[in-house]
Write a structure and sequence with these properties.
9-stranded antiparallel sheet; 40% strand; binds fe (ii) ion; Jelly Rolls
Length: 193
Amino acid sequence: MLHHIRAVSVPILTDDFRQELLEEAQSYPLRYINNSMGSGENEVKQEMYLQNQLHMGDAFGELLRDFQTLFNDSISGCGFFDAEVVFNDWIIQKYEPGYIGITPHRDRTDYRHMICLFVLSGHGRFYISKDRAKRDSMEIANLPGDVILMPGPGFRGMHHRPFHYLEDITTGRWIFGLRHDETKLNGERDNSD
Ligand SMILES: [Fe+2]
């Protein structure tokens, strides 16, 4: 399915657990970034708060364990992935209303298998597109409590990295991102674009 539609959004968090995750997310100091990477038609602009030094306390620790177990017990065994999926990269991102969000980009090549973005709060419009010019954009409708799942290299033997972007943030949007970072397994790092 993801081969054709490139991303999905699935309701996964109960409201109580989502609230616990949000409170834990709000306990971290966040770092503001407002920058651009690349130049010309390859430019990517972003504006958000983030924190990726997480100790994975009660709620985040539980989410990580449960989601990792879900993959280990069911999804990893389905043959969709060419190696074990290890969710070893964690990030909180917060987008305020009126922020530009992030313009079309692809995640780093070493974010493999499956990128998982849990929506803890707030509203913004998330799109997959064919390129940075937003051609063939498709909105992935999402609400607080959903997880957006997007394939990375190694999913079903492909090397697919969909362009995606976030805009029209209307209420403070908190995201928890869970990724498999190959560099943390073998010490190498590729560049994003
Ligand atoms: Fe991204």
